[in-house]
């Protein structure tokens, strides 16, 4: 039978790991110096791509670091260090920079890639745990991890070191991102799909407009208003004078004017100066406004002119929430 632990023991072991790795990151943060700034400068001045390379666990971490750089405005590509010796060195050009990852800095498979960067004067930045390693000594900038024990039960499996390497890669990517002034609009260019992409949709892209809008005039009798509200399935009717927004009739307005409702007109019942939003606003902003006001729709305006209606349901369908 395999060994077993109690629930409390399992939770305790997990907490020990997380706290140990958190402490290691605190130590790492305190070790950053001008070498980190030099690495940032080299990446910023790279005319080609940032080539991230490694093998084993460092390779897995390297793939994520390359993906983070690529999605935040720095062209980046991962190259497996062993595959580099079998033709993939052709992916590296003199205009590129190489970020090479290895805890020991002595991994045999790194030799050809290190030699290639030195021969063709390709900028080499390294992350390792040994300042005297072959990799560190060959690098233009060597970022050295602090001497912190691996948190695994036998102190050998890459755990704490890979966490620090990944975090240091994030620190480089985010610092470069900030230095480039990478903004939400550019972020959207690289994340057009899924929930992230939906966050950058504009209200004008989702709003109901034109003949589909449930429009009524101020003197419209309430029986007709109710028909308009239920017929459109929006649950609201919008008061306009020409193209100008005058108010909105909601379910709440109906409840507040229940007495003699059918004898009244739209202008008697409507909420004047309803909360609005512009078509250029982000849909995520519209969702925030609707949630804060506890409403399910907002009138979209351009100055005093009504241009559409944005509904929480449309935002949900688009994947924003």
Report what the structure shows.
The structure is a single chain. The chain is an alpha/beta fold. The chain has two domains: 7-182, Glucose-6-phosphate isomerase like protein, domain 1 (Rossmann fold, 3-Layer(aba) Sandwich), CATH 3.40.50.10490; 203-318, CBS-domain, CATH 3.10.580. Helices cover 45% and strands 17% of the residues. It has 15 helices and eleven strands. It has helices at residues 7-31, 34-44, 57-71, 81-84, 111-119, 134-138, 160-179, 184-190, 194-198, 203-206, 222-232, 251-256, 266-269, 283-293, 312-318; strands at residues 50-54, 76-80, 97-101, 123-128, 141-144, 215-216, 237-241, 244-249, 276-278, 297-302, 305-311. The strands form three sheets. Strands 2-1-3-4-5 form a five-stranded parallel beta sheet, sandwiched between helices. β9 (276-278), α14 and β10 form a beta-alpha-beta unit. α1 crosses α7. The radius of gyration is 30 Å and the shape is elongated.
Q: Which terms would index this structure?
A:
alpha/beta; elongated; 5-stranded parallel sheet; 3-stranded mixed sheet; Rossmann fold; 321 residues; CBS-domain; 15 helices
